[in-house]
Amino acid sequence: MLNWITNTISSLSYLGIGLLMFLENLFPPIPSELIMPLAGFTVARGQMQFIPAIAAGVLGTVIGALPWYYAGKILGTERLQQLADKYGKWISISSKDITKADRWFDRHGSKAVFFCRLVPGVRTLISLPAGISGMHFHSLGSQKEYAAV
């Protein structure tokens, strides 16, 4: 995996960083914890500029969150519950689990998105309940919510 990430960044430069960060948000096994440090190493060697490398990573990550966000927004709670009841046995999830998660997300969604975006693997999946709840893309919550944190 390390060689593939290194080769992608070397051959595609900023586009490679953006592409890898996009894919990392779709498929959790691709670790951004390798992508961005390698991008930083490339910057330190003088082969890339700092600001465009960061911008490519951020842009790739934001675009990568969109498919999961819109899947949640389009499918909605009821459809996901139906899918869980039909196929959830393969991943040990039921419609009851989705209902409990939905209630929890209604109470803690803004904080959950903020903190879960920092956790590898979870950062991919947190976009789904954000979409289901119709969370605004540009807001992570009010100042009042974070005062309690």
What keywords describe this structure?
mainly alpha, elongated, DedA_domain, transmembrane helix, VTT_dom
Description:
The protein has helices at residues 2-26, 32-44, 50-87, 95-116, 122-125, 127-132, 143-147. It is mainly alpha-helical. It has one domain. The longest helix has 38 residues, at 50-87.
By secondary-structure content and strand pairing, the structural class works out as mainly alpha
Q: Into how many domains do the coordinates divide?
A: 1
Q: In percent, how much strand structure appears in the residues?
A: under 5%
Query: Quick one: biggest sheet?
Result: none
| Overall pLDDT score | 84
Radius of gyration over all CA atoms, rounded: 17 Å
What percent of residues adopt helix (DSSP H or I)?
over 70%
The total strand number stands at 0
- Taking the alpha carbons of the first and last residues, their distance comes to 37 Å
Helix run count: 7
Q: What is the 3D shape?
A: elongated
Regarding quaternary structure, how should these chains be classified? single chain
Uncertain spans: 139-149
Run of helices and strands = HHHHHHH
Protein name: VTT domain-containing protein
Subcellular location: Cell membrane
Family: Belongs to the DedA family.
Keywords: Cell membrane, Membrane, Transmembrane, Transmembrane helix
